[in-house]
Specification:
Family: Belongs to the BolA/IbaG family.
CATH topology: GMP Synthetase, Chain A, domain 3
Number of strands: 3
Strand order of the largest sheet: 1-2-3
CATH superfamily: BolA-like
Shape: globular
Order of helices and strands: HEEHHEH
Strand content: 15-25%
Largest sheet: 3 strands, mixed
Helix content: 40-55%
Number of helices: 4
Pfam family, one: BolA
Protein name: BolA family transcriptional regulator
CATH architecture: 2-Layer Sandwich
Radius of gyration: 12 Å
InterPro entries: BolA, BolA-like_sf, BolA/IbaG_stress_morph_reg
Number of domains: 1
Length: about 80
């Protein structure tokens, strides 16, 4: 069974992340927040595709569901500034 920490490691091995947090406790369903400079200039669909690409075949085998929120570093700073 896959852990949230393993999923974080898989993503960061293949995608530059300024911040990442993955939650999930059943081994197949996860929620993630991913902040990456690689998202700059890309719409949300393209950002999500980069995360899926970072996970590769794991999305077809080990991960049943991944809900994610993706942000550029600038968008993340603006969001966190409003907290």
């Amino acid at each position: 069974m896959l852990s949230a920490q393993q999923l974080e490691a898989y993503i960061t091995q293949n995608l530059a992340c300024d911040y990442i947090k993955v939650l999930g406790d059943d081994g197949t369903h996860f929620e993630a927040i991913v902040v990456s400079p690689e998202f700059v200039g890309k719409n949300m669909v393209k950002q999500h595709q980069l995360v899926y690409a970072a996970l590769g075949e794991r999305m077809k085998a080990e991960i049943h569901a991944l809900s994610m929120k993706t942000f550029t570093p600038e968008a993340w700073l603006k969001l966190k500034g409003n907290d």
